[in-house]
Amino acid sequence: MLATSSLIGIALKVVMLFVFALMGYIFWIYWKQLNEKEKLEVAVKAAEFFYRNAIKAGAEKKRYVVSWLISIGVHIDEVKLNMYIDAILYAMEVAKNKGV
Question: Dihedral of CA 11/15/18/24: which sign?
Fold first, then answer.
């Protein structure tokens, strides 16, 4: 009887350890993505600043953003990159129109 309760206690500890490890992994993934978005926002704002007087400079701005992200070790797939850039530019436009 004692051996069975000891085994149950060990199994419970193993399950709890697995759950905590999984929660830590999920938090780490969330944290990493959050930092990528923040870094992307800085890169987009810098590109907008550097190319503020350029006409039809979208491709150059995007090359600047991508090269800067690669240089700091951030890799985002093309679909997510375009989606994030559009969202950041939209938020910048809304803030500009509100006078923020």
Answer: negative
Q: What angle do CA 44, 48, 52 make, to 5 degrees?
A: 175
Q: pTM for the complete prediction?
A: 0.59
Surface-to-core class of residue 51, CB atoms within 10 Å of its CB (0-12 exposed, 13-18 middle, 19+ buried): middle
Q: Is the pLDDT assigned to residue 4 strictly greater than 80? A: no
Q: Which residues lie closer than 8 Å to 61 by C-beta, 6 or more apart?
A: 44, 47, 48, 51
Closest C-alpha among 14, 19, 21 to residue 6: 14
Average pLDDT over residues 95-99: 84
